[in-house]
Amino acid sequence: MKVTFEIKTTCSKPFHITVSEEIPVFELRKIVIDMVEYNTILCREDVIDLFIPHNNDCISILELSSDTVKSFIEQYPEYFHADNSSLWNNIHQLYIMDAPYMEKIRSKKEAPVYNDFIPPAKSTTSAKNILKNALTLLTGAGIITSAT
């Protein structure tokens, strides 16, 4: 079975990865860190921890853990929703703690905020935005070509 994780960082919008529940946790960690490096401004060296919140603690996903994703999920059913009757129960959140964020906290500065997306202008209608996005996607996919 496949499991989808929503990865939450301090410096980007959440992104998703899907893996087999049979892979080892250390492989999951490697995939997540590779995707953090690809999807954010962070480098792998910036990642301090990959974790889940559990009660008043943080449970780290260790580099050397040979547990499978399935067995890790089964260890924390209250966090990972033991009831699998819904599709949403197979989407789980993992969190990244990064060095730039920790430095901001230690120096009592404002924590970094993700500003790398531009919301649509208020004067633009939602239909116009949908059409603009559709044309962009179709052009990028080569379905519509320009006459130049």
TrEMBL record:
Protein name: Uncharacterized protein
